[in-house]
Write a structure and sequence with these properties.
By secondary structure, this protein is mainly alpha-helical. The protein is built from 17 helices and 3 strands. It has a 3-stranded antiparallel sheet, covered by helices on one side. Strand 1 and strand 2 form a beta hairpin. The longest helix has 56 residues. It is elongated, with a radius of gyration of 29 Å. The N and C termini lie far apart (104 Å). About 4% of the residues have low confidence.
Length: 413
């Protein structure tokens, strides 16, 4: 039998690496689950590691296109069916037939086949590459071992619903300014390519020296008209280079850290990310996962490498025996009010409830920031638009103004 190299998290959230012999990667995953660790990445020893296509690890056998709405409906329906006493295989068969997404229908078919082969549900979900996150799989595993699988599915439904809501709100916050900037760029391109060249032909007949700002505008316009393909190629090259840089580990880390420092928008992204973290951490603790293991799982699903690194450092601190509060202070990303809630939660033994309160607090703050976003960015956009109009107006009309003054001077003489 072949050998497989693996990475996994133990009950304390510590990363474990090794090599196991097995019939296939699924068999190795089953062995790891049975030993009490959660697989993160499994690949054939000596071969290239199977590459992750989405944040988080898992077995990369195929890449079905399954959306967030599919996982939401699946979690809710599994809760309802299990609560009604429907066996898991029969529930999956019903969901497979009723699914309108061929990719998800195929995913459920593979899950059923894996279950019929004697594997646990968590392992069967783990085998579906890129569909179920390590956090989702770990929660299902906790539900299997504690006998509260239906309750776990309900919690996962609320968790995914919250994640989707926060992601949608943050995207909507960025949509308006991006639209305005794109329109301004298009307007600038039209002025450069069509408007200024027309005025340049008129000015050429004046036979006088043009103002410096007009010369500059005409030079930029001439370059744009003659070398538009160079500008377009350069922009595409910059975009490609940026995407390649963000695709690297270091580039993604720096970009995610930079996003949090962008004026106005950075605080919205940070609060939205922390709200998702707090809700996920509360779910993990409430489901019986240790704080160390919970932090390790949550760090893989926050959608921000910089914040994930801070959470990993929190996990390392808790693993050394420090309190969650102390590690949260050291992370430097939580507000004093949130830290106070963490303190109360640790002292009262209700950390999960307090993390839910933290999530609610950050959610309310994000909603408030979104409502006031227009008022915050409107002065900036007005200033940018005013500067653009001023430059174009001066460049276009100064020569006409100078010509008019010269004509009036000759008329009076």
């Amino acid at each position: 039998m072949p050998y497989f190299a693996y990475k996994a998290r133990d009950g304390r959230g510590q990363l474990v690496e090794g090599v196991l012999e097995g019939a296939d990667s699924a068999a190795v995953a089953t062995t790891l689950f049975d030993s009490g660790v959660v697989p993160v990445d499994i690949g054939e020893a000596g071969s290239a590691r199977l590459e992750s296509r989405r944040g988080g690890g898992g077995l990369r056998l195929r890449t079905p296109k399954v959306g967030q709405i599919d996982l939401l409906l699946f979690s809710r329906q599994m809760y309802s069916l299990l609560k009604a006493g429907v066996p898991i295989l029969r529930a999956l068969a019903g969901l497979q037939e009723s699914s309108s997404n061929p990719a998800f229908k195929d995913t459920l078919k593979h899950v059923r086949e894996s279950l019929e082969g004697g594997r646990p549900l968590s392992v069967s979900l783990q085998r579906q590459a890129g569909v179920f996150s390590p956090f989702y799989v770990a929660m299902v595993y906790v539900g299997e071992t504690t006998g509260r699988l239906e309750e776990i599915f309900l919690r996962l439904f609320h968790h995914l619903e919250f994640q989707d809501e926060m992601r949608t709100q943050v995207k909507s916050a960025l949509r308006y300014p991006i639209f305005v900037i794109v329109v301004m760029v298009i307007a600038l391109a039209i002025i450069n390519l069509f408007v200024i060249p027309t005025f340049a032909k008129v000015y050429a007949g004046f036979g006088t020296k043009l103002p410096l700002i007009t010369q500059w505008l005409i030079a930029v316009s001439n370059f744009s008209v003659e070398y538009w393909w160079v500008i377009l190629s350069g922009l595409m090259g910059v975009l490609f280079a940026f995407k390649s840089w963000v695709g690297t580990k270091e580039g993604r880390y720096k970009w995610d850290a930079f996003k949090l420092r962008i004026p106005i928008f950075g605080k919205i992204v940070l609060k939205g990310t922390l709200a998702r973290f707090a809700r996920s951490f509360a779910l993990a603790i409430r489901s019986g996962v240790t704080a160390v293991h919970g932090l390790s799982l949550v760090s893989q699903v926050v959608d921000n490498v910089f914040v994930a690194d801070r959470i990993e450092k929190m996990r390392e601190g808790v693993e050394r025996g420090e309190s969650v509060l102390r590690t949260a202070i050291g992370s430097g990303v939580f507000t004093p009010v949130a830290l106070q809630m963490v303190l109360v939660g640790e002292e009262s033994g209700s950390l999960d409830d307090m993390m839910d309160e933290v999530a609610d607090m950050y959610t309310r703050e994000v909603q408030y920031e979104l409502k006031t976003l227009g008022a915050q960015i409107e002065p900036v956009l007005i200033v940018l638009l005013g500067v653009l109009v001023l430059i174009v107006a001066l460049g276009v009309f100064l020569p006409i103004w100078d010509l008019g003054r010269a004509a009036l001077g000759r008329g009076t003489s």
